[in-house]
Amino acid sequence: MSREENIERQPINCIATFNLKGEAIPLVIKFLNDKGEEVTIKKVICDDWSKIHGNIRYQCHGEILGIDEEFIIVYYPEDMKWYILDKQYKEKSLDYGYLEGLSESTCKFIFYVIDEYNLNLYHSCMAVIMNVMKKKIPTLGEIKNTYYISAKKNKPYLDEHRMEVDELLELCYQRCLFKKKKGKAKHK
Protein backbone atom coordinates (compact mmCIF):
# COMPACT_ATOMS: atom_id res chain seq x y z
CA MET A 1 0.00 0.00 0.00
CA SER A 2 1.39 3.35 -0.94
CA ARG A 3 1.10 6.41 1.26
CA GLU A 4 -0.16 8.48 -1.72
CA GLU A 5 -3.39 6.49 -1.85
CA ASN A 6 -4.02 6.79 1.88
CA ILE A 7 -7.75 6.79 2.54
CA GLU A 8 -8.98 8.99 5.39
CA ARG A 9 -11.98 7.96 7.49
CA GLN A 10 -15.00 8.78 5.39
CA PRO A 11 -18.57 7.68 4.71
CA ILE A 12 -18.99 4.93 2.13
CA ASN A 13 -21.82 3.29 0.23
CA CYS A 14 -22.15 -0.37 1.17
CA ILE A 15 -24.23 -3.26 -0.07
CA ALA A 16 -24.53 -5.72 2.79
CA THR A 17 -26.48 -8.80 3.69
CA PHE A 18 -27.65 -9.80 7.15
CA ASN A 19 -27.37 -13.32 8.51
CA LEU A 20 -30.02 -15.04 10.65
CA LYS A 21 -28.50 -13.51 13.79
CA GLY A 22 -28.98 -10.01 12.33
CA GLU A 23 -25.24 -9.45 11.83
CA ALA A 24 -24.30 -7.23 8.88
CA ILE A 25 -21.93 -8.70 6.30
CA PRO A 26 -20.51 -6.18 3.80
CA LEU A 27 -20.37 -7.41 0.20
CA VAL A 28 -19.67 -4.38 -2.03
CA ILE A 29 -18.47 -0.88 -1.12
CA LYS A 30 -17.98 2.40 -3.01
CA PHE A 31 -16.07 5.46 -1.87
CA LEU A 32 -14.02 8.37 -3.17
CA ASN A 33 -10.25 8.08 -2.89
CA ASP A 34 -8.03 11.05 -1.99
CA LYS A 35 -7.90 12.03 -5.69
CA GLY A 36 -11.70 12.27 -5.84
CA GLU A 37 -12.01 9.14 -7.98
CA GLU A 38 -14.82 6.70 -7.27
CA VAL A 39 -13.48 3.34 -6.14
CA THR A 40 -15.65 0.22 -6.08
CA ILE A 41 -14.68 -2.96 -4.29
CA LYS A 42 -16.96 -5.59 -5.83
CA LYS A 43 -15.97 -8.45 -3.56
CA VAL A 44 -15.34 -7.46 0.06
CA ILE A 45 -13.83 -10.29 2.09
CA CYS A 46 -14.05 -9.87 5.86
CA ASP A 47 -11.21 -11.55 7.73
CA ASP A 48 -12.28 -10.49 11.20
CA TRP A 49 -14.81 -8.29 12.97
CA SER A 50 -15.27 -6.93 16.46
CA LYS A 51 -17.81 -4.87 18.33
CA ILE A 52 -16.46 -1.65 19.76
CA HIS A 53 -18.74 0.66 21.72
CA GLY A 54 -21.84 -0.67 19.92
CA ASN A 55 -20.32 -0.26 16.46
CA ILE A 56 -19.00 -3.10 14.31
CA ARG A 57 -15.46 -2.90 12.95
CA TYR A 58 -14.49 -5.15 10.04
CA GLN A 59 -10.93 -6.04 9.02
CA CYS A 60 -11.31 -6.71 5.30
CA HIS A 61 -9.48 -7.08 2.05
CA GLY A 62 -10.47 -6.72 -1.57
CA GLU A 63 -9.21 -5.55 -4.91
CA ILE A 64 -8.62 -1.79 -5.13
CA LEU A 65 -7.41 -0.56 -8.50
CA GLY A 66 -6.16 -4.03 -9.39
CA ILE A 67 -4.25 -4.65 -6.13
CA ASP A 68 -5.46 -6.80 -3.21
CA GLU A 69 -5.52 -4.35 -0.28
CA GLU A 70 -6.40 -4.58 3.40
CA PHE A 71 -8.77 -2.00 4.82
CA ILE A 72 -11.01 -1.37 7.80
CA ILE A 73 -14.67 -0.45 7.60
CA VAL A 74 -16.96 0.39 10.50
CA TYR A 75 -20.74 0.01 10.65
CA TYR A 76 -22.74 2.25 12.99
CA PRO A 77 -26.03 0.35 13.50
CA GLU A 78 -27.71 3.22 15.34
CA ASP A 79 -27.18 5.59 12.37
CA MET A 80 -27.14 2.79 9.75
CA LYS A 81 -23.95 4.32 8.25
CA TRP A 82 -20.72 2.78 7.00
CA TYR A 83 -17.23 4.31 7.06
CA ILE A 84 -13.82 3.32 5.77
CA LEU A 85 -10.82 4.07 7.98
CA ASP A 86 -7.18 4.64 7.10
CA LYS A 87 -5.92 1.82 4.92
CA GLN A 88 -3.42 0.56 7.46
CA TYR A 89 -2.82 1.39 11.07
CA LYS A 90 0.77 0.17 10.54
CA GLU A 91 1.47 3.13 8.24
CA LYS A 92 0.19 5.41 10.96
CA SER A 93 2.46 3.88 13.56
CA LEU A 94 5.47 5.43 11.82
CA ASP A 95 4.33 8.74 13.33
CA TYR A 96 3.80 7.15 16.74
CA GLY A 97 7.22 5.71 17.58
CA TYR A 98 6.51 5.95 21.30
CA LEU A 99 4.10 3.02 20.88
CA GLU A 100 7.00 0.70 20.07
CA GLY A 101 6.87 -2.35 22.27
CA LEU A 102 3.08 -2.65 22.23
CA SER A 103 1.25 -5.48 20.49
CA GLU A 104 -0.44 -4.85 17.16
CA SER A 105 -3.91 -5.25 18.70
CA THR A 106 -3.14 -2.62 21.35
CA CYS A 107 -1.80 -0.19 18.71
CA LYS A 108 -4.92 -0.76 16.59
CA PHE A 109 -7.11 -0.01 19.60
CA ILE A 110 -5.14 3.17 20.40
CA PHE A 111 -5.52 4.36 16.78
CA TYR A 112 -9.21 3.48 16.82
CA VAL A 113 -9.70 5.68 19.91
CA ILE A 114 -7.70 8.49 18.26
CA ASP A 115 -9.88 8.28 15.13
CA GLU A 116 -13.17 7.78 16.94
CA TYR A 117 -12.81 9.98 20.04
CA ASN A 118 -9.90 12.27 19.16
CA LEU A 119 -8.10 11.04 22.29
CA ASN A 120 -4.60 9.57 22.53
CA LEU A 121 -4.79 6.93 25.27
CA TYR A 122 -1.00 6.82 25.57
CA HIS A 123 -0.89 10.48 26.63
CA SER A 124 -3.92 9.97 28.87
CA CYS A 125 -2.25 7.04 30.66
CA MET A 126 1.06 8.89 31.02
CA ALA A 127 -0.68 11.95 32.49
CA VAL A 128 -2.56 9.92 35.11
CA ILE A 129 0.53 7.91 36.09
CA MET A 130 2.81 10.95 36.31
CA ASN A 131 0.24 12.79 38.41
CA VAL A 132 -0.05 9.86 40.85
CA MET A 133 3.75 9.49 41.00
CA LYS A 134 4.13 13.09 42.21
CA LYS A 135 2.94 11.93 45.63
CA LYS A 136 4.41 8.41 45.85
CA ILE A 137 5.54 5.49 43.73
CA PRO A 138 2.46 3.27 43.48
CA THR A 139 2.24 -0.36 42.40
CA LEU A 140 1.06 -1.26 38.92
CA GLY A 141 -2.20 -2.51 40.44
CA GLU A 142 -2.80 0.87 42.09
CA ILE A 143 -2.11 2.60 38.78
CA LYS A 144 -4.62 0.39 36.95
CA ASN A 145 -7.30 1.01 39.62
CA THR A 146 -6.70 4.77 39.53
CA TYR A 147 -6.87 4.88 35.73
CA TYR A 148 -10.04 2.79 35.42
CA ILE A 149 -11.79 4.77 38.16
CA SER A 150 -10.88 8.10 36.54
CA ALA A 151 -11.89 6.83 33.08
CA LYS A 152 -15.07 4.96 34.01
CA LYS A 153 -17.55 7.78 33.40
CA ASN A 154 -16.24 9.31 30.15
CA LYS A 155 -14.48 6.29 28.57
CA PRO A 156 -16.89 3.32 28.80
CA TYR A 157 -15.30 1.68 25.73
CA LEU A 158 -12.24 0.80 27.83
CA ASP A 159 -14.06 -2.03 29.61
CA GLU A 160 -14.31 -4.04 26.38
CA HIS A 161 -10.55 -3.64 25.82
CA ARG A 162 -9.07 -4.26 29.25
CA MET A 163 -6.24 -6.42 27.87
CA GLU A 164 -5.07 -3.66 25.50
CA VAL A 165 -5.42 -0.93 28.13
CA ASP A 166 -3.59 -3.05 30.71
CA GLU A 167 -0.72 -3.57 28.26
CA LEU A 168 -0.58 0.18 27.59
CA LEU A 169 -0.67 1.00 31.31
CA GLU A 170 2.19 -1.44 31.96
CA LEU A 171 4.34 0.19 29.27
CA CYS A 172 3.57 3.71 30.54
CA TYR A 173 4.20 2.64 34.15
CA GLN A 174 7.62 1.22 33.25
CA ARG A 175 8.53 4.40 31.35
CA CYS A 176 7.44 6.64 34.22
CA LEU A 177 9.41 4.54 36.72
CA PHE A 178 12.47 4.82 34.48
CA LYS A 179 12.06 8.61 34.21
CA LYS A 180 11.59 8.92 37.96
CA LYS A 181 14.69 6.81 38.73
CA LYS A 182 16.69 8.67 36.09
CA GLY A 183 15.62 12.00 37.64
CA LYS A 184 16.67 10.87 41.15
CA ALA A 185 20.04 9.71 39.85
CA LYS A 186 20.70 13.19 38.38
CA HIS A 187 19.97 14.88 41.74
CA LYS A 188 22.41 12.70 43.72
Major sheet description? 7 strands, antiparallel
* Low-pLDDT segments: 1-7, 88-94
Strand tally: 7
H/E element string? EEEEEEEHHHHH
Mean pLDDT over all positions: 78
Radius of gyration: 20 Å
Q: Assign an overall shape.
A: elongated
Number of helices: 5
Please state how the strands of the largest beta sheet are arranged side by side: 3-2-1-7-6-5-4
Helix/strand class = alpha+beta
Distance between the termini: 51 Å
Tell me the β content: 25-35%
- Classify the helix fraction into a percent range: 25-40%
Please describe what this structure looks like:
There is one protein chain. By secondary structure, the chain is α+β, with helices and mostly antiparallel strands. Helix content is 37%, strand content 29%. A hairpin with a 5-residue loop joins strand 1 (10-18) and strand 2. The protein has five helices and seven strands; from the N terminus they run E-E-E-E-E-E-E-H-H-H-H-H. Helix 2 packs across helix 5 and helix 3 (121-133) crosses helix 5. The model is unreliable at 1-7 and 88-94 (pLDDT under 50). A seven-stranded antiparallel sheet has the order 3-2-1-7-6-5-4, with no helix packed on it.
Summary tags:
188 residues; alpha+beta; 7-stranded antiparallel beta sheet; 5 helices; 7 strands; 37% helix; 29% strand
